Amino acid sequence: MNNSLLVVVIAQGIAYGTPLLYAALGELLAERSGVLNLGVEGMMLVGAVMGFWAVQRFHVTSPLALVGAIAVAALAGAAMAAIHAFLVITLRANQIVSGLALTIFAGVAGLSSYLGNDLNLARSPARHQFQAIFPKSWQDINAVGPILFGQSALVYASWVCVVLVALYLTRTRVGLNLRAVGESPAAADAMGIDVAGYRYAHTLVGGAFAGIGGATFSLSITPQWLAGLTQGAGWIAIALVIFAFWRPTLCLVGAYFFGAFTYLPFALQKYSWAPPPELAQSLPYVMTVLALVLVSSRAARLRFGAPSALGQPYVREER
Amino acid sequence: MTRGRKLALVLPVLAFAGVAVLALGVAAGSARSHKQAATFKAAWIYVGPHDDHGWSQAHDQGRLYVQKHLGSKVETTYKELVPEGPQTCQVIESLVRDGNKLIFATSFGFQDCMVSEAKKHPDVDFEQATGTALSKNLAEYFGAAEDAIYLSGMAAGAASKKGVIGYVVPFAIPEVIRHANAFALGAQATHPGAKVRLIWTNSWLDLSKEKKAAQALVSAGCDVLGQNVDSPATGEFAESKGVPWVGYDSNAQTFAPKQWLTAAIYNWGPYYLRRVKAAMNGTWKSGFYYGSLNDHLVGLAPYGKKVSAKTKRAIAAKKAALMSHKFYEFAGPLHDQSGKLRVKKGQKLSVHQLYAMNWLVKGVIGSPKG
């Protein structure tokens, strides 16, 4: 039962969807404030490399080292996001260009790989890693065991994050202010909301989430550092926010859907009727391209629930 | 808004820090290649990172071997994570412009660009690993890894209780197909009737894909794992599940200290040294080099604890027989997956035939088309 295709694919979909979920939650927060950040892939890679560095260098007990590593990864992601925030909020640069530049700067042929080489990180496996936290007998329960109890702490923490972000956006004053900033910064400004402050804060938090998403790769999924190990997950996360209509709960569903799709081609190869693996493996990326095409026009974007001011710099004097 | 102003003061600093890091990176990158007019320059291009604990790392160790032996007489550089496609040509072009006189391309997908660049630059010598194209200034080199992989397959077969072994494979090309066949034949030598299940990742190096493939193999009932892909991700998963593992390309024992069996590994250093020396004194000639166990281009990594003394003896005996040409794994009779006789008794597959192999031997489960 626990080895049946459905159970394995759902359980692995959750495991492989988790980095996407973290990154998508972060991107969602930034976009809700009106800042489109295409630098997710770069921020994830820097988070992955710095989180891995921390776990190799912190000589403390395993849980402490892992918590410390996640904190370092979040800080690293936020530091990357700060570059983007400065360029697009203070200098009002084009958000698409700045985000792409961030991915190129921090990404696979840039800062993350340089740090990995310079800190000599590819030499050994992770000293500590996130593993399943529930006892083996729970994990062996039919069907629900692998799905609900076979996951690492990062998965359960991501569920808490989804609930918190959802409550934050809909039930708190600050969350409502954030949405006002994303929908109509001029109106928010007139209400006395610090538009630039909100945008900075949420872009940085978004970067922190992306950093954690990257560390999910290097500390839980792979768990080792190798240049470019996210393999485009950051782009999928951006598409995911669109698929989820900018809602955190739908991000969770979408992330697991994408996660399952990245695992499915491998699970299917044992069946003779399986589609060619090249086709199945490219599917998540095809869907990403489709999503990006769909929302590239402003009208379509608004119909799908995009924040009205997404991608536009706010200048007080202009209307 | 004072708060906005404060931020405006702090953030340029952060941005400048970012720029400074970038500048440092550029400086460190160029510091790696000291400019000296008299030194001979040779370059390597890798499909993965130079420290992938697999294929590219084995080549990079070969490069370092050359550097160590020739010291300041030679300047070696590498380009890592080079995509297989039109970009390869740009990378080679820039290496030529930098004054490199000998360029080693270490992945099959680099071949098209090597052919066109070799035509464009007759004064530079090119060497392509695992390929087939030859010209006056383009040589080909590889090794009979299948012999070493056969031996590593023997370790896998002996470690398997159920006789179902998983093998993580990259692309469905003749190189990988013959390696998978050799692995299966080796496993069947120590575990008669053993089955080898393949899962294709369609990538030379992708940690999460390799892990997914390993997971899928274990959930399909495999109790030993092997691989023809470049990273130790399969081994790390095997270690976490308590499944014995056979690696590939480099000694990656540290990634699975308990479950490590052995691996077919490459030792490119001596070949690279010979070729660089020849290019330096003008005696370099194009040709097709196929290294073997005898000249130590291929071999076995040290055994792990899980390999029994009996298995070690059996492998040593087969290795000696391979080296003295008393035994050859691709000698008939050999049947394909459907049971059809492909190599008749008394026949042997030539290197030429190995380079065109597109069928899987009996006992392999999976499609030879990927």
Description:
The complex is a heterodimer of chains A (319) and B (370). In chain A, helix 1 (5-32) runs antiparallel to helix 11 (195-221), helix 1 runs antiparallel to helix 13 and helix 2 runs parallel beside helix 4 (95-106). Chain A is 70% helix and 0% strand. The radius of gyration of chain A is 20 Å and the shape is globular. The N and C termini of chain A lie far apart (61 Å). The longest helix of chain A is centred in the N-terminal third of the chain and has 29 residues, at 62-90. Chain A has a single domain, classed as Orthogonal Bundle (ABC transporter involved in vitamin B12 uptake, BtuC), CATH 1.10.3470. With 319 residues, chain A is mostly helical. Chain A has helices at 5-32, 40-57, 62-90, 95-106, 111-118, 136-139, 144-149, 153-171, 173-183, 185-190, 195-221, 233-243, 248-268, 277-294, 298-303. By secondary structure, chain B is of the alpha/beta class. Chain B has 2 domains: 40-144 and 268-291, Response regulator (Rossmann fold); 145-265 and 298-365, Rossmann fold. Helices cover 41% and strands 19% of the residues of chain B. Chain B has 11 helices and 15 strands. Chain B has helices spanning 2-31, 55-70, 86-97, 111-120, 145-159, 174-190, 207-219, 233-241, 269-280, 309-323, 351-354, and strands spanning 40-45, 74-79, 102-105, 125-129, 138-143, 164-169, 195-200, 224-227, 245-249, 260-266, 288-291, 298-300, 334-335, 341-343, 364-365. In chain B, the strands form 3 sheets. Chain B has a 7-stranded mixed beta sheet, with helices on both faces. Chain B is globular. Chain B starts with a helix and ends in a 5-residue tail after the last strand. Mean pLDDT of chain B is 89; it is low at 1-14 and 20-36. The chains are: A mainly alpha (319), B alpha/beta (370). At the A-B interface, helix 1, helix 3, helix 5, helix 11 and helix 13 of A face helix 1, strand 7, helix 7 and helix 8 of B.
